[in-house]
Amino acid sequence: MYSAALLFIWASVAGHANAWTVTLAAAVTVLAVARVRAEERLLRTKYADYDACARATTALVPFLV
């Protein structure tokens, strides 16, 4: 879900690149990464077997986040 939203946002920036769109997209990206990390922490504390699932999948972009 977050990956799709970020892809859409950055594709829009590519089509309408200016300082405002790049700044806004960067801010949304930072907030999305922060939210994903917070959700990951919550899920790890709430569900004991979540670690195994998290190791097998990626949160946003494979090998990055």
What brief labels describe this structure?
75% helix; 0% strand; mainly alpha
What is the percent of helical residues? over 70%
Q: Report strand %.
A: under 5%
Low-confidence stretches: none
C-alpha termini separation:
14 Å
Number of domains: 1
Shape: elongated
Mean pLDDT: 89
Count the E strands.
0
Element string (H = helix, E = strand) = HHH
In this structure, how is the largest beta sheet organized? none
Radius of gyration: 14 Å
Structural class: mainly alpha
How would you sum up this structure in a few lines?
It is built from three helices and no strands. By secondary structure, the protein is mostly helical.
Structural features, described:
By secondary structure, the protein is an all-alpha fold. The protein has one domain (2-56). The chain is 75% helix and 0% strand. It is built from three helices and no strands. The protein has helices spanning 2-15, 19-46, 50-56. Helix 1 (2-15) runs antiparallel to helix 2. The protein is elongated and about 45 Å long.
Write the layout of secondary structure elements.
Blueprint: H1 2-15, H2 19-46, H3 50-56
